[in-house]
Write a structure and sequence with these properties.
Oligomer: single chain
Distance between the termini: 37 Å
Largest sheet: 2 strands, antiparallel
Strand content: under 5%
Amino acid sequence: MIIKRIDKLINTLAQSPYWEIKITIISFLLVQLVSFPSYNLERDNFSDQYEKSLNIFSNIDHGSGKSHKAKMNVRITVPILIKILDLSPFGLIILKNITGLIFLFLLLKLFLLIIEDKYLSILLTFSSAFIGFGKASIIDPGQGFDGLSLMLVLSSFLLNNPFLIIISLVVGFFNDERAIISAFLFSLYYFQFKSKLKIKNDNRYPFITFVSVIFFISCRAYMQFNLGMNASIDGVGFTQFLSQINSISIGYFMFLEGFWIIILYSVYLVWNTNKKNPLFLLIIASFMIGSLSSFLVFDHGRSLIYSFPIIFFGLSYIKPIIDYQMLKKIIVATLISCMIIPTISFGGKSSYWSFYSFPTQVIRMISGKY
């Protein structure tokens, strides 16, 4: 009975005015319900960003290459926003949440573009609200702004104006260079499925991405060699990979949670229906290389989420092969799996971070533990 009522409610929402906005808000509230951060309004909570905002184009004492500050020396997007908008810690938290809202809205738009069904697109968006990449902007109350890069790269793929695409990509790269992984996967997606993306006929996304990457690399080279802005990479490399090799399996599993149903089933279908081609094999190889490279750094849980575009490949491969009812069953199974598997971030050999739900945070507030 409850399932039928939920099903009816979703169908009603899908047919209502401004349904995309309504679903985005509901998805955002779901994120807050299952993973409500422990907010800290002290400037020390964003100390690296504030320090860099005072010295954006000069070198700062970044300490160990294993530290967040070492990378902050060249990740200048948020410090620039702080400088221009005079953002307080509360302002940065608002920025994170706005970024999360926009990201969920863009996810819904792309799911709809691929699936061409409002109901299933809504279920996929709800699924995203329960896993790491879907709530990356919101669950980290501190100095991580990965969600901003994810949102900018996703928006670049849905934009039509080449200049706006370049701006989105370059700003995303300067926030975190790992966004290049997402942009590269979206470029491969364009090559494979451009005939189905009516809005992408003229903007030559892969070429624009290539130009953006070259521009970013040139700027980074200028910053290092002319401005002396260094980013030490101590602790990044094969030694780090070997030290946490035991975490690879659980890291991969927690990266996509229930969405692995779609990915693995799509690989199975394509492989067994003789629809594989060199580009399909390149996509698989690129995903494996890009995601495995995440384990070259300590915070591999954060790095893995930049490979999230692989889910769009999975959906695009299976949709033409199976009927609607089978597709619905797969997506419902994905949603249920994402709901029951808790979001846990991993780093290093044995470090992990879980997240409080909103009801749990209320209890902590009452007991003075928030």
